[in-house]
Amino acid sequence: MTSPATTLQADLHDTVPTGVVLRYGVGQLGAQVFRDTPAVLLPLFMTTMLGVPAWLAGLVVLGPKLWLILCDPLVGAWSDRVKALYGRTPFLIGGALGTTASFVALFAATSFSSPYWAAATVCALFFVGSTAFSIYSVPYLAIAAELSGDPHQRNRIMVLRMFFATFGVLIGVGVAQPIIEHFGGGAAGWHMMSYVLGAICLVSMLTTASGLRRVPLIMAGDVPGNLWQQLALVKQNKPFLVLLLTSFISNIGQAASYTVIGFVFLYALEAIWLIPIFILCMSAASLAAQPLWLWLPRRIGKPRAYMVAALVWVAVTITWLWAGPADDVVGHLGAQALGTQHVLVLARAVVIGMVNGGFILLALSMMTDTVDYQRRLMGVANEGVFAGLFSAFEKLAFAMGPVIAGLVMSAFGFVSSTGGAASQTHHAITGIILLYSVIPAVMQGLALLVFSRYRLPVIGG
């Protein structure tokens, strides 16, 4: 990253060295752990360990995320102002430290006088952690638009970033639950999970902060005016606004489904043991498909490649409506009997893994294209503000997801408990399945309708 002694212009067309791409990408490993683990496990932690009602657990996540609508753009504008003097390194370091400490603290306390006091404490800790994560994640995303002026190089950067994000999902979702169980479940299991995953967050995020410290970025000049004046300029970037709304709608549906993944395997499939294998299959497929998302956008363009990935995802997601406990045995996986339903779950994992990472990385890649469009159109671009807005709306969506999930689960009669999982009615399980199938599929369909208006004008440069 640039420093006062190394304020260099990144070349607009040369290949970004693989070492730089790797040092950038590895930071997403820890970022993904913090992004996904609380989204998936915090509602489960609150409803089964702290006795917090499902509807309140969703609001606990929503509060800090609402703050980020303002915080993320402010962090982006702040990092833009000091970029020429200090680079973005101070933000990455401070954000990494704060994010890690807050992650560990989230799961530290399991005994409260009331579920409402528990909810208030978790909300406060998540507020601090979300702010620290904003300080890291917004400048981190801005850097992706500053490493190259070549759209295919930026897509390559995002593919490598998604490579590490996949490992983050594998660790944050697939490994977290087994760690909890390995250490006996209960408070001790949750504590050990937070220590192990917190250490991974710290090492990976600081590796990026240190590794990019002297890497030159595109220095297009500062955008004049305060934040509100800069936002007025952003509003004139129609491709960015279309992409922002598309991702926001899509992410709401995905966030609702992420919230209930543990509930789906626990109650709907009655196979909580299958989660690590499901995540492993999904992650392996995602990793194997990364060359596809380098090749396909070059062949048919990023927008069409995005549409292909999203449509396949919708088709597979809707099939969760027919998921349920296995009532036969077709083989064995270690000591576990494997039924037809289990095989279908793993088959879904493969397809979802192939396409889910595709439309996520392409959305981010196209976001950097809209920033480059602004830079070529005006001669300057506030990369941090763009990244801040994109990040803010993503986090808001992932806050609304748990709220929607909590309301739906409560409406369908989900019963919260303390110290472990309670049995649920068939009606409550139906609500869980809808949150993992119809609701995210419909949201993705609406997002694609918005995305059909995406057009990126070509400007010479």
UniProtKB/TrEMBL annotation:
Family per record: Belongs to the sodium:galactoside symporter (TC 2.A.2) family.
Source domain of life is: Bacteria
The alphabetical list of record keywords is: Membrane, Transmembrane, Transmembrane helix
Q: What is this protein called?
A: GPH family glycoside/pentoside/hexuronide:cation symporter
Q: Which cellular components does GO assign to this protein?
A: plasma membrane
Q: Which InterPro entries match?
A: MFS_2 (IPR039672), MFS_trans_sf (IPR036259)
Q: Which GO terms describe its biological process?
A: carbohydrate transport
Question: TM segments?
Answer: 44-70, 91-110, 116-138, 159-180, 192-212, 240-265, 271-293, 305-323, 343-364, 385-408, 428-451
The record's GO molecular-function terms, alphabetically, read: symporter activity
Q: State the species of origin.
A: Novosphingobium sediminicola
